[in-house]
Amino acid sequence: MATNSEIQQLNIQSTLTNVLQVLPERNNTILMLRYGIGSFNKRATLESIGRQYNITRERVRQIEEASYNKVTNSDEYVQLQPIFDVIIRAIEEHGGVATEEYLIDNLITSEKDVPYLLLVLAISDQLVKMKETENHKAGWALSKVHIRNTINVLAGLSEYIKVQDQPVASDTLLSVATQEYTQDMKIDLNDQTLEKILSISKIIKRSPYGMWGLHSWSSVAPRGVRDKALLVCENHKKPLHFREIAALIDKSPFQQFSEKRTHPQTVHNELIKNKDHFVRVGLGLYVLKKWGYKPGTVKDVIVDILKKQGDSGLHKDDIITKVLEQRSVKNSTVLLNLQNKQVFKKGENNRYYLA
């Protein structure tokens, strides 16, 4: 496995500085300006360099490209090969395509080395640049074929997730990817390699609870208290008190880097306000409506139960059982509601009907 210690041992700064000596002074300086190298600690734009040298933006770009070619065709270029070998191995382990972010995180230990790595990548004639789009991040690949295959895989998996209309478990997505795309990727797909491939996408994202979904989904990237409460309830799959929901939000993966605490009353207000998503089933207890819970009071639940029974009515004990499936209340609360003679009537053998 390629490691950052290897790049550090190869001393990327001094190696690249030596190689760049093959360039004319102006070309050398322009590359250093473009990448924020040496005393230039901030990357300069083509426009700003053009103003400095009194040349056009396009001319700066041409000088930059010509400089890459001159270095690549020089005898000194071979000095960079050990560094290229480490980078290539890291990209191979990533499925043939890796984001710049991944290469920086895994190959560089000092921020001062970052611009040197980026310039080495740009100079290499053994790698292909993958330009950033609205669908995927910028990166580097072993070939154009690797880029095309990776983009196809990401498009296929994002479409699969979209059709499911809900986050997908890692093992399910791995199964789909293995069946459909192993030949294209030319690597052994497993949880680690699949995660590396998916990390290139801007569309697919891992949810706080480990599922894969679309970045635009609130279940994957929760924004407000409502989204977070939905995720917490979905993950725990049982009635929760609003204070418990607030505490679970603060303990959840999506809140781990936030110092701001979630106020229970704020959660309660969101639960009350969002009746399309939450149903109160007891004193401060809430569930998700999509689990089959009906909104309303205990009386409303009994009415709904008896409507489904029609003229046959239902025994008192059966009514209590069915109400307790929908509400967390005492038996006496159900019996008290059944005494409402304007809504319910009692027949023989403790059977109840709608009035």
Automatic annotation (TrEMBL):
Q: GO molecular function terms here?
A: DNA-binding transcription factor activity
Q: Name one GO biological process term.
A: DNA-templated transcription initiation
Tell me the InterPro entries matching this sequence: Asxl_HARE-HTH, RNA_pol_sigma70, RNA_pol_sigma70_r4, RNA_pol_sigma_r3/r4-like, RNAP_delta_N_dom_sf, Sigma-70_RNA_pol_init_factors, WH-like_DNA-bd_sf
Q: Which domain of life is it from?
A: Bacteria
Q: What are the protein's UniProt keywords? A: Transcription
* Start and end residues of each HTH HARE-type domain: 223-291
Kindly give the PANTHER family that the UniProt entry links to this protein. Answer: RNA POLYMERASE SIGMA FACTOR RPO, RNA POLYMERASE SIGMA FACTOR SIGD, CHLOROPLASTIC
Record's protein name = HTH HARE-type domain-containing protein
Q: What organism, scientifically named, is this protein from?
A: Candidatus Spechtbacteria bacterium SB0662_bin_43
